[in-house]
Each structure stands twice: as C-alpha cells, then as structure tokens.
C-alpha cells in the first residue's frame, strides 16, 4: 500500500536547546553574583583568572557528566534590565561565521524564571551588526520569520546560537545569564538527555 508522502517542516527534528546537570552551577552563580556591582552595562566579559576559575569548574563538570573534553573559550555574563527585549540576532562577528560557535552553555545567575528565549525559522541573509562591541550579526529577513521554539532557561542549558534567537526579561528585576562558549563546540546531538 502506498501512503501519501507528506513533507514535514524542516524544524520537526531540530533541537534548539538541551538541559544538563552541572554540579558546579551554584558555585559559578555565587562567583558571578559577586562580580556584579548592580550597574546596567550590557554584559561582563570574564578574562584572566576569572575566566580560568569558571573554566576549571565547568570543564571538569562537562568531562565528568557528559564525557566530553573541552576548553573554555569565552564567558560573558549578560545583564538585562527589567522588561528588556533583546533584538533578534545570530551570534558572531563575521557573516560567514567561520570558527564561530554554534552552541553556548547558558547558566542562569539571577532571576531567570521569567525570561524566555525564542528561536525563529525563515529565509534570511546575515550582515555585520552596526554595533561593534557585541558579537551579534544582523538578520535581513527574506520572508516573514516564524517562531520555532521557546524555552525558559532556568537551569544549565546548551542553546543554539547560530540561528535567529533572542530573549525577553519579563520581570521587573534585573536578569543575569552567564553564556559560555567552548572549543571544541559541543553539538546538541552529542549531549545525552537527562532523565
Ligand atoms: Fe545570542
């Protein structure tokens, strides 16, 4: 018997995020909170001994929990004002995204229970962002984008950053999220689901 062949939407099997267990999460939270003076800058970029401290904790956990050996590349703490809505973007400096990470490990630091992340599908062309300080690429939509997935990131979660996404802080308090990139990049399909 022949069944009609229905073409499924492209995102039907695509994963946009994956939660993981990260034993050092509370230690990293404590450290990051101690580094925030309450000012609303866009982000804090960790470097030197601070980056090394976060790296040591997180690299150990990734190896122990996921069995994957990685080195920390960057750790940026995003500081979102109350009711902040981030521009839709793809991460990266260069529209070709050569050597750019496709995933980030997001670690909630403060008030992340009311800040959904959204991912969008559609045809687009990437161009450089006019903002030099932030690693965002501008999305030039060729047609109307459609919402593909949404998730409240309130646990350590690997998220896709190579497709259009943004966050909203739907609360009256500041939201702090640490976003970590690794070499090598960890693909979502290589992360076992937690039960
Ligand atoms: Fe992003």
CATH topology: Jelly Rolls
Question: Strand count, sense and closure of the main sheet?
Answer: 6 strands, antiparallel
What is the CATH architecture descriptor? Sandwich
Helix content: 10-25%
Q: How large a portion of the residues is in β-strands, by DSSP E?
A: 25-35%
What is the H/E string?
Answer: EHEHEEEEEEEEEE
Can you tell me the residue ranges where pLDDT is under 50 for at least 5 consecutive residues? 1-8
Overall pLDDT score:
91
Give, in spatial order, the strands making up the sheet with the most strands: 1-10-5-12-3-2
| Bulk shape | globular
Q: Which ligands does the model contain, each kind named once?
A: fe (ii) ion
Assign the CATH class.
Mainly Beta
Give me the secondary-structure category: alpha+beta
What number of domains? 1
Description:
With 195 residues, the protein is α+β, with helices and mostly antiparallel strands. It has one domain: Sandwich (Jelly Rolls), CATH 2.60.120. The chain is 15% helix and 34% strand. It contains two helices and twelve strands. It has helices spanning 25-34, 48-66, and strands at residues 17-19, 43-45, 71-80, 90-91, 103-110, 116-121, 124-128, 136-141, 146-152, 157-160, 165-167, 175-183. It has a six-stranded antiparallel β-sheet with strand order 1-10-5-12-3-2. It has a three-stranded antiparallel β-sheet with strand order 4-8-7, with no helix packed on it. β7 and β8 (136-141) form a beta hairpin. The protein starts with 16 loop residues before the first strand and ends in a 12-residue tail after the last strand. Residues 1-8 have low confidence and may be disordered. The protein binds fe (ii) ion. The site of fe (ii) ion has 4 residues, from loops.
């Amino acid at each position: 018997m022949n069944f009609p062949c229905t073409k499924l939407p492209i995102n039907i099997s695509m994963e946009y995020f994956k939660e993981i267990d990260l034993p050092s999460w509370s230690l990293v939270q404590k450290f990051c909170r101690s580094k925030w003076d309450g000012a609303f800058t866009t982000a804090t970029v960790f470097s030197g001994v601070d980056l090394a401290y976060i790296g040591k904790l997180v690299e150990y956990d990734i190896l122990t929990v996921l069995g994957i050996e990685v080195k920390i590349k960057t750790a940026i703490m995003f500081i979102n004002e109350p009711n902040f809505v981030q521009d839709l973007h793809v991460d990266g400096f260069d529209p070709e995204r050569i050597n750019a990470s496709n995933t980030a490990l997001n670690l909630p630091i403060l008030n992340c229970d009311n800040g959904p992340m959204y991912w969008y599908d559609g045809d687009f062309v990437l161009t450089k962002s006019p903002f030099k300080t932030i690693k965002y690429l501008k999305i030039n939509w060729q047609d109307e984008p459609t919402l593909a997935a949404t998730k409240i990131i309130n646990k350590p979660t690997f998220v896709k950053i190579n497709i259009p996404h943004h966050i909203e802080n739907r609360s009256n308090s500041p939201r702090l999220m640490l976003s970590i990139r690794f070499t090598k990049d960890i693909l979502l399909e290589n992360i076992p689901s937690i039960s």
